[in-house]
Amino acid sequence: MRGKAHLSRVVFWNLRSSDHDMASGGESGSNQIPNTNPPGERKVFCVKFQREMEGLDEVPFDGHPLGRKIYDNVSKQAWKMWVEHMKMLMNEYRLNLGTQQAQEFLIQQMDNYFFGEGAALPADFVPPGSGH
Fold first, then answer.
1. Residues contacting 45, CB < 8 A, separation 6+
2. Would you say residue 27 lies in a domain?
3. By the 8 A CB rule, do 47 and 81 touch?
4. Up-side HSE of residue 120: CA atoms within 13 Å toward CB?
5. Domain total in the chain
6. CA separation for the pair 23, 15 (Å, rounded)
7. Would 122 be classed as within a structural domain?
8. DSSP class per residue in 17-86
């Protein structure tokens, strides 16, 4: 699938993007949706927070139905939380995003994080600062 092939590029784009980059189009391409509202005015009912909040300015990745579903249902704040969780998953599982297996794993985790039972933590994960 085309969306999976672009996931690693989008993951790294999101990891290096600040709040302002997303609003200003930190990456050019077909994943940008024309936005007639000034940044911050697009609202969505966020599935993570269960309330209306500021929505994303762009579809997180194109060519995959999950990208559009996230754009329509996930707030910027929830997306930032996912990016932090994704970084932890990438580090703990030592994912190589050049492999289809790693990309499919992250897509499944992303879907679970927003629309399922939540993304699972690695069995031996110790949160930073827990003193272990």
1. 51, 52, 73
2. no
3. no
4. 6
5. 1
6. 15
7. no
8. --HHHHHHTSS-STT-----SPTT--EEEETTTTEEEEBPSS-SSSSSHHHHHHHHH-BHHHHHHHHHHH
pLDDT digits (tens, 9 = 90+) for 4-39: 444 544 454 454 443 333 333 334 444 444 545 566
* Domain range enclosing 12: 2-22+39-115
pLDDT of the residue at 131:
62
Contacts of 69 (CB under 8 A, 6+ apart): 115
Q: Which amino acid is at 76?
A: K
Per-residue pLDDT reduced to its tens digit, 44-62: 999 999 999 999 999 998 7
Quote the tokens at residue 60: 């997180």
Question: Beta partners for 75?
Answer: 55
Residue with tokens 């579809």: 59
Instruction: Answer whether residue 82 is part of any domain.
Output: yes
Residue-level length of the chain: 132
CATH number (domain holding residue 18): 1.10.3880.10
